[in-house]
Automatic annotation (TrEMBL):
SUPFAM superfamilies: Winged helix' DNA-binding domain (SSF46785). The lineage of its organism: Bacteria, Pseudomonadati, Pseudomonadota, Gammaproteobacteria, Alteromonadales. Residues 22-80 form the HTH marR-type domain. Belongs to the GbsR family. This is HTH-type transcriptional regulator. It comes from the Bacteria. Pfam families: MarR_2. Keywords: DNA-binding, Transcription, Transcription regulation. PANTHER family: HTH-TYPE TRANSCRIPTIONAL REGULATOR MJ1563-RELATED (PTHR38465:SF1). GO terms for molecular function: DNA binding; DNA-binding transcription factor activity. It comes from Echinimonas agarilytica.
Amino acid sequence: MTMSPKIESFVMHFGEMGSRWGFNRTVGQIYALLVIHEEPLTANDIATALSISRGNVSMGLKELQSWRLVHVSHQPGDRKDYYSTAGQIWDMAKTVFEERRKREIDPTLSLLRDQLLDTAANQEEKYAQERMREIHDLLEGLTQWSTELHSMSPETLHKLMKLGSGFSKVVDMKDRLLNSKNS
């Protein structure tokens, strides 16, 4: 299985970006290859296309399965496992965000809650707890917001994203109007 230069460029770039999103480079490349292929691929197909070992592919696929980003299927009369992405692009984005929240944000919130329950022993700890409270409140707000986003349909999310800076301009205008009335 060979990739066209356009597809290879995408797959290689996605591998580099994957390392910034919580995957290693190879896992990112495997995922990119699966995203742009219409038909499910076998581990051998993936290994050949990416010029990597079958063992490396196997480890990468296990990682993607732990993130709930790929699923395995079988074809009648064929003993091989076939891998494809799980869901549409929006579903994948929501899954990555949810998994990162579980792996990164939730443990941080737990630590912060524990630290905030303790009484500060001195002024230094009191100041540190105030800062921890700010971090906690920010992460808690982001978590609640992401939960609401997670329940939206892809169409609604797309519309929300299109609002973009237009929404912030409306909020800024509302704030200016309220401030001018209160002055």
